[in-house]
């Protein structure tokens, strides 16, 4: 495994920043062993919120990157249910309606997570929801989400 990904997994921010300072191209590297994930995907998937913020400050465009499954970093944070990472990605402008290769948005995945707090934050930051997302929230048993989502505009 490449040293940049080891630093991310270990949440070693000084080592990560040192590697990027030596070679800025580390921000472009993808982990082929982990679904062709970017450094931001890896940090989001491990729930390393502070590292997520640092990566976005260094290369903001990574919030729109997709892995081999079409997931953005927000998809992974939503599925993990990590409140801080979800909040950070939403504050930096991650798209809430982007679909992965299975036609799932981050909202679909946050409904599957066990974190009602992450789901609440997500629902508060989302302006529009699709009928499919409403149906999914209901069918997945996320009834607490329905109250938030019914207040949104449908697209």
Contiguous uncertain segments of 5+ residues: none
Basic shape:
elongated
Relative helix content: 40-55%
Distance between the termini: 42 Å
Determine the oligomeric state from the structure.
single chain
Look at the structure and name the CATH superfamily.
Ankyrin repeat-containing domain
- Order of SSEs, N→C? HHHHHHHHEHHE
Major sheet characteristics? 2 strands, parallel
The CATH architecture name reads: Alpha Horseshoe
Going by helix content, strand content and strand pairing, the class is mainly alpha
Widest sheet: strand order?
A: 1-2
| Rg, alpha carbons | 16 Å
- Count of separate structural domains: 1
**Mean of the pLDDT scores?**
85
Write the CATH fold name.
Answer: Serine Threonine Protein Phosphatase 5, Tetratricopeptide repeat
Number of helices: 10
Strand content: under 5%
Short description:
By secondary structure, the chain is mainly α.
Q: Overview of this structure, please?
A:
- This protein is mainly alpha-helical and 155 residues long.
- The protein has one domain: Ankyrin repeat-containing domain (Serine Threonine Protein Phosphatase 5, Tetratricopeptide repeat, Alpha Horseshoe).
- It is 54% helix and 3% strand.
- The chain is built from ten helices and two strands, in the order H-H-H-H-H-H-H-H-E-H-H-E.
- The chain has helices spanning 3-9, 13-22, 39-45, 49-58, 73-80, 83-91, 106-112, 116-125, 131-139, 143-149; strands at residues 128-129, 153-154.
- It has a two-stranded parallel ribbon with strand order 1-2.
- Helix 5 (73-80) runs parallel beside helix 7 (106-112) and helix 8 (116-125) runs parallel beside helix 10 (143-149).
- The model has no long low-confidence stretch (mean pLDDT 85).
């Amino acid at each position: 495994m490449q040293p940049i990904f080891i630093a991310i997994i270990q949440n070693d921010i000084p080592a990560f920043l040192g590697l990027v300072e030596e070679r800025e191209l580390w921000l472009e590297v993808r982990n082929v062993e982990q679904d062709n994930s970017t450094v931001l995907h890896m940090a989001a998937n491990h729930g390393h919120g502070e590292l997520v913020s640092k990566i976005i400050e260094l290369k903001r465009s990574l919030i729109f990157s997709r892995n081999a499954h079409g997931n953005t970093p927000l998809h992974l944070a939503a599925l993990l249910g990590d409140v801080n990472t979800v909040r950070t990605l939403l504050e930096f402008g991650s798209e809430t309606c982007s679909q992965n290769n299975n036609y799932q948005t981050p909202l679909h995945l946050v409904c599957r997570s066990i974190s009602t707090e992450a789901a609440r934050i997500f629902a508060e930051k989302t302006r529009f929801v699709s009928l499919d997302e409403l149906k999914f929230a209901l069918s997945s048993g996320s009834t607490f989400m329905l109250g938030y989502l019914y207040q949104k505009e449908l697209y």
